[in-house]
Specification:
The structure is a homodimer of 451-residue chains.
Chain A lengths: L17 H7 L22 E6 L17 E2 L2 E2 H10 L4 E8 L4 H10 L5 E5 L4 H12 L13 E4 L9 H14 L1 E7 L3 E5 L5 E4 L6 E10 H10 L2 H6 L3 H9 L4 E4 L10 H14 L3 E6 L8 H12 L4 E6 L1 H12 L4 E6 L6 H13 L7 E9 L6 H8 L2 H9 L3 E9 L4 H21 L8 E3 L1
Parallel strand pairs in A: 1-4, 1-6, 4-5, 7-11, 12-13, 12-14, 14-15, 15-16, 16-17
Antiparallel strand pairs in A: 2-3, 6-10, 7-10, 8-9
Helix pairs in contact in A: 4-6, 6-8, 10-15, 11-12
Chain lengths: 451, 451
């Protein structure tokens, strides 16, 4: 598996509920309990997650801690919260942040409408932060408003691409083995240096694995381990599985993870994360038009060319009639790209209708939405210059939309009588639409492009 | 150090010569022999490099082997060759490619004008490919046209960001110790699984390192090791340092490398590499205008605003007079971004002059060059529509330029009499210019944007 677009699943789509799956024995293939070697029967599990987010990101080489670095103007940690949130069977998500970032974290939760999140204060090290998160979940704490889960997931704030599948697998394995963690093959050979900085020996790559996140534990096991463990462990340790082994004699089950689990560590990882997110929200384009039944619409031609030219993208269409009920469905399924075809006489009416619907939907809360307002021009009827002058109205309007995270551009498509030339115009339009959607650059909003 | 833009150094700039440095004792700070703990004296070293490039890139999840995946339409391996080539003291670069990719590799060498490259046939494994490369360098081979180097560098085709500094360090260390390799701290904890897929033990992260590339060896040491080593090693081994240790009892010196050394392994790494390369070639913008001495030029205003708004970018200026001798220098120093300011009456004359100079320079052989043709418009003198109509000529011209890897866009800047409004127009122009340079998307060429 690759960190490209997940097969069919949308970034914020909700997966099936674990409790439902377990109760009704209707496991989806990827989430089958037997995949993790476990058969938990009919008993639903109670699951919470702890997310240490107190790190300072020194390896990033930037002053902002990496979990707060923006991707498409939204902090990285919000993507990770979104990935956990959409898994409906995780009932609580406890995030450990430093006191100086507490306010910023609260704003993030509010702005991006995160749910089921509790904040605790981070400790000075990763282990201390996790311990604080566990304490908040333990019922023995007098001021805890949370209830103790049977299984607790520990994940990193800087691994935003975790899928429900692997979360499910580690939870089921933890239920059976007491502890479980995701692993990946080693990319580089691991070597042991001698005291004088020379090679002492190298490890046989095939016999070792990289320990990644998420991990899951029976709550009582990992809480016991943290209560028992030494100050040295809390200060210098890095591996929760090791604590469970050392203090509770629990040999964690290791679960093969996908490359998606990688940790955003260096600046290049931020670049990669941004490209992956952009790619994921560019998988579908909805062509919007105001058709009446039986009417031949130029938009249908454009739709056909988009389907042909952009063959990795799903092209759907939505009508503006009936208060856009078609569109409402497409929006609820998280399509972030719209090409609105305006009929020649109406100029911007259809685009304005679409924008009203998008504004009401809150679709742009999590991701910038691209809207390309398409206008056709027959050179026989008007000059390009005149038409452009009319349409420059888009600049002011785009500015307003940008404040709502909607990126609006205009696209004027030449509409010659000649069939072949029309096809060329439409192909050119498809290339420009693809570029606008791919880059999602707010510096280009309000421009009127010509195909 | 971060994989961001190297301090002051351009992507293709040539570094100082090792032989020169060693002979004249004029080592640059970063390349000081003492940095590697060695003092090689006055004797110049002869150095060659071997690059195994026969892999199939199965982890990438794409059919093209990763070393041939395009970044800005140029294959990844060409960037790596460029990184080695610019180090003038590496006299030969031997690349091992499979017979089926031999022709493609020859085209790459020709198209991107690579020098000092010899091709050999790759073996079935990484070690066999390296061995083939070493054989070509050994003088005992009857048909070898290459001469045996004192030290040989082994590098990966998929690590394009290697800097001269670390190459120098491993070469000097290899001269002293017989072998040397770059290392990095571990990002994840390394664990050892038991036979039943559970955690057996985890390694103390601080005591181990990831072995990266480049590595360097006394030629006789590594060639001897490959001649001695078993079929099992050739088939399943991954670590050259281990061969030198096992067969020649040479404990390699380990050299701390920068994060730049990372290996393009997954699709996300291609995304990261593309972003890093785009960032590196977007560090400088040259504002081009046809000024006469003492003349007040609107271009100077734009230059001032660019300096103020894009404060991570170096803004230079070049004049078109005297056959563009100013410009020639800027081009020779590898600036890949030009903003050409046309005076109101001339329309495209200045941009055309600039494009001729760029075409002659071959600057766009390695990277796409962005040219923004800026035109000012006083609304009192002409309507936007009229002006745009005149300038739509740019579309045809941009198409032609695109074939030469020059990405041309037009930018019409409103020039109101009001000082404050003019500043706003210029700021808007800076935002658009920054977006065009950042994205470098060929789908947007020929567009006429409005600020």
């Amino acid at each position: 598996m690759e960190p490209g677009p997940p097969s069919g699943s949308r970034p914020t789509e909700q997966g099936p509920c674990l409790s439902g799956l377990l109760g009704a024995h209707q496991a989806a293939p990827a989430s089958s309990p037997s995949a993790a070697g476990a058969e938990p029967g009919r008993c639903p599990l109670s699951v919470a997650a702890v997310l240490p987010a107190g790190g300072c990101g020194e390896r990033m080489g930037v002053p902002t801690p990496k979990q707060f670095c923006p991707i498409l103007e939204r902090p990285l940690i919000s993507y990770t919260l979104q990935a956990l949130e959409r898994v409906c069977w995780i009932k609580d998500i406890v995030v450990a942040v430093t006191s100086e970032n507490m306010e910023a974290m609260n704003s993030i939760i509010q702005k991006y409408q995160h749910k089921r999140i509790s904040l605790v204060e981070a400790g000075g090290t990763r282990h201390r932060s996790i311990f604080n998160g566990l304490k908040a979940l333990a019922e023995d704490q007098p001021d805890s408003k949370l209830s103790k889960p049977e299984v607790v997931i520990i994940h990193d704030a800087v691994r935003p691409f975790v899928e429900e599948d692997v979360l499910f697998k580690v939870v089921i394995a933890a239920k059976e083995h007491g502890a479980a963690g995701a692993i990946r093959p080693l990319v580089s050979t691991v070597i042991s240096p001698s005291a004088d900085g020379c090679l002492d020996h190298s490890l046989e790559r095939a016999r070792y694995r990289a320990s990644e996140m998420p991990q899951a534990f029976l709550f009582d096991v990992i809480y016991e381990a943290y209560q028992q463990c030494s100050d040295y462990d809390l200060e210098f340790g890095t591996e929760c599985l090791q604590l469970a082994l050392k203090y509770c004699h629990t040999n964690a089950k290791l679960v093969e993870g996908s490359p998606d689990l990688w940790k955003v560590t260096y600046k290049r990882d931020l670049y990669a994360a941004e490209s992956i997110i952009k790619e994921r929200i560019s998988q579908e384009i909805c062509v919007v038009m105001d058709t009446k039944e039986g009417e031949e619409h130029i938009g249908l031609l454009l739709e056909a060319v988009l389907k042909c030219e952009l063959n990795h993208v799903k092209i759907t269409s939505g009508a503006l009639q009936h208060a856009g009920s078609d569109l409402q469905r497409i929006i609820s399924e998280q399509c972030y790209n719209f090409v609105c075809v305006n009929v020649m006489t109406s100029d911007f009416q259809d685009t304005q209708k679409l924008l009203s619907i998008l504004e009401e939907s809150n679709l742009s809360t999590l991701y910038p939405v691209v809207v390309v307002s398409v206008h056709f021009l027959d050179f026989k009827l008007a000059t390009l210059g005149q038409k452009m002058e009319n349409l420059m109205w888009i600049r002011g309007f785009a500015k307003e939309m940008k404040r709502r995270n909607i990126l609006l551009c205009g696209l004027l498509v030449c509409y010659p009588q000649d069939e072949q030339k029309l096809q060329e115009s439409l192909k050119q339009a498809a290339i420009i639409i693809a570029a606008l959607i791919k880059e999602r650059n707010s510096g280009l909003v309000g421009q009127l492009l010509v195909a």
